[in-house]
Design brief:
Length: 186
């Protein structure tokens, strides 16, 4: 799937969001390494290797991994799929990473909108984020703007390198009205 941004569309102008290919990994790995080693937004081990990161980040079907590209340069990446297998597979999840140089330019918002559309198109009932660091105020604000709400916070569940222990939010965006028949992804 490839989406080229239009000035009036959901996605940031000039950014193409497309399916990840292995040729993208040399640009994706530095973004993941940068975000994970900062240890302030993701629960991943800061010492993870490129091989470990690839296995965690690159989704297998029915999931998907995408990249946000501008002028041939990967600015960010997202992965999405079912939140849980079996009886929980009707709810999706997603994660996003944006290079430090591209933050504040709408790339994360575009990736999140893309993931929401991806999940709706596949019949998921909603999208759940399991561990949003509460001190990551920019991400929390974007998610809330896009319709997510904090449904709970695990106090002190994240060891932030500067702030100490901070909470992890569980956030949810419901796609269909409560009580509607369940729809399962294809």
């Amino acid at each position: 799937m490839s989406v080229v941004a239009a000035g009036t569309g959901h996605y940031r102008p000039c950014v193409q969001i497309r399916t990840f290919t292995d040729d993208d990994w040399p640009q994706v790995w530095p973004i993941i390494r940068q975000v994970v080693r900062a240890a302030d937004t993701f629960t991943y081990d800061p010492a993870m290797t490129a091989e470990q990161a690839y296995d965690i980040w690159v989704e297998k079907p029915p999931g998907s991994t995408v990249v946000a590209v501008e002028d041939g340069r990967v600015l960010g990446t997202a992965k999405m799929g079912p939140n849980r297998p079996g009886p929980g597979s009707h709810v999706s999840t997603a994660s996003f990473m944006v290079s430090a140089e591209a933050r504040g330019r709408g790339v994360g918002t575009a990736l999140c909108r893309f993931a929401l559309d991806w999940a709706r198109e596949r019949g998921y009932a909603g999208m759940q984020f399991n561990a949003v660091v509460e001190s990551n105020e920019a991400a929390v604000a974007v998610y809330q703007k896009l319709g997510f709400r904090v449904i709970g916070t695990v106090p002190g569940a994240f060891a932030h390198p500067e702030l100490g222990r901070v909470g992890l939010h569980i956030m949810y965006h419901e796609f269909e009205p409560a009580g509607a028949p369940e729809s399962h992804p294809r």
